[in-house]
Amino acid sequence: MSTSYEVFCSAFFDKIQNNKEFFNYYNLTDDESLALAKQRSKGYLKEAIVKLTLECTPDVNFTDCDDTAEVVNVDATMTEIDIVANLMFEMFLQKDIAKLNAFSPHFTASELKSVLSPANERSTFVSMYKGVQSDNKDMIDNYKSRDRLTGKLKTLDFPL
Q1: What is d(CA 19, CA 127) in angstroms, rounded to the nearest whole number?
Q2: Higher pLDDT among residues 74 and 101, named by residue
Q3: Which of 31, 30, 52, 41 has the alpha carbon at shortest distance from 89?
Q4: What HEC string does the chain produce?
Q5: pLDDT band for position 65 (cuts 50, 70, 90)
Q6: For the sheet containing 3-4, what is the strand order?
Q7: Which one is predicted more confidently, 54 or 101?
Q8: How large is the average pLDDT for residues 9-21?
Q9: Distance (Å, rounded) from C-alpha 9 to C-alpha 42?
């Protein structure tokens, strides 16, 4: 079995549905905007899979993807879909963190206020991003300690 990219991307879209900038692009029709959003989300999907496989060794190979058929050759569970979608959300936020970091060394604090947003909003965004990272780490730690199909804790067999 396999899981289509669309399944992961739909779960990701549900997490960012209120972000109008992701779905609306200047001088593009609604269909063109949606196509571009789907293309961007596939990039986040790849990044999320890489992060998941770096953070743990899943019982299945998420890197076995078929870009032509747009599927991951894994029958992903609801938990796995949610974890990957949350990691996609983290990758999405990471792009804005990179922008904040890129501007920070080049501007004074007063210049940053006029270029980006007030410091309070920036610090709130960074705090939210760190919270998402922490939540994702906790989810991955929980995932890797459980059987992917039953959800039961994995046990170690020690010979006596």
Answers
A1: 18
A2: 74
A3: 41
A4: CCEEHHHHHHHHHHHCCCCHHHHCCCCCCHHHHHHHHHHHHHHHHHHHHHHHHHHCCCCCCCCCEECCCCEECCCCCHHHHHHHHHHHHHHHHHHHHHHHHHHHHHCCHHHHHHHCCCHHHHHHHHHHHHHHHHHHHHHHHHHHCECCCCCCECCCCCCC
A5: very high
A6: 3-4, 71-72, 65-66
A7: 54
A8: 90
A9: 7
| Contact call for residues 9 and 42 (beta carbons, < 8 A) | yes
Dihedral sign for Cα atoms in the order 146, 87, 75, 56: negative
Question: Each residue of 72-97: pLDDT tens digit?
Answer: 999 999 999 999 999 999 999 998 88
- Is residue 30 within 8 A of residue 39, CB to CB? The reply is no
89 contacts 132 by C-beta, under 8 angstroms: yes
Report residue 146 CA to chain centroid gap: 21
- Report pLDDT digits (tens) over 109-151: 666 555 555 667 778 888 999 999 999 999 999 999 999 999 9
Angle at 55 between CA 58 and CA 124, to 5 degrees: 130
Entry pTM:
0.85
- Residues contacting 8, CB < 8 A, separation 6+: 45, 48, 72, 76, 81, 84, 85, 88
